[in-house]
Each structure stands twice: as structure tokens, then as C-alpha cells.
Design brief:
Number of strands: 0
Structural class: mainly alpha
Order of helices and strands: HHHHHHHH
Amino acid sequence: MKKTIILAIALCCNLLPANSQDIYNSIRSKSKAAVEAKGTDKIVKHISQFKVDALDYMMIKMQEQMPDSSTVLLDKQAYAMQEFVNFYIEKVLLNNDKSDSTQIKGIKMFMDASYSNPLFNDPDEELTLGYYYSPDAITRFSLNTDWRKALAAIKNLYAKQGK
């Protein structure tokens, strides 16, 4: 278990890109590489697959619904998604020794932040909420998320709680 936690933390730290123009591509390529690597831990692979799916969804929907948007918006959303997932992992790890109800409450806060901040007008809930409703998913978030707003919302919730 400790090895898995260390791998998850290393994955989070390793995926922070340096150049803002390449944020989307950097996060996606590193996540895709983690998914495809044979020795990647199962948990890290799942988190990385979520990132690839979220980024692919975001790219497709931005091309469909926001064709005039810049790559800067895509990069900002990708970076916020990365930060959201990192913050989630950090909080899950910190609550690992807490009661089940405390852990579930924390996870639901992240789920709600994701669900309550949609980016696109997408009625396809089967697609957008696939991870959200999957009891086996580690990252139970909506793909249709405004990650900047969701990140601000969850950080605000934790700030209010003094955590």
C-alpha cells in the first residue's frame, strides 16, 4: 500500500509541466505513457487513464462547442484538472486513517465539485458521468467539468473547514 501511495504522489509531482503553452500536451502524453507502461501500478494507471479521457473529452468538446477558443483556455483547464486530481489524491491519503464516513464525505465533496461545475452543454450523461457513477473508479468525477471552477470550489470548501 505504501508503494502505491508513493507511486501516486510521484505521478502527481511528475506531471507538472513547465511551459504553459504545452500544458495540455504534456499532461496528456505523460498520462498516456503511464497507462501504456507495463510496470505501472494499477491505481496510477487508473488515475492516468482518467486524465487521458478527461483531456480527450475536453479537446473534442472545445472543438465542437468553442471552436474560437484559444489553446490557452485548454491549457488552463488541463492544468486545473491536474491540480484538482492532485489535491484529491492528497486529501484521500490524509484521510486514509480516518473513519469510513469521513473518507466518503471527502470523496463526495470532490465528486460534487466536479459535477456542479460543468463546462459544456452536454446532455450525454452516459459518457460524461461514466467515472462519476462507477463504483470501481478511483476518480469518480464528471468529464464535463470546468476544472478551474471545480478546483476553486473544493479549495474553498477545505479553507472554510480549516483543513
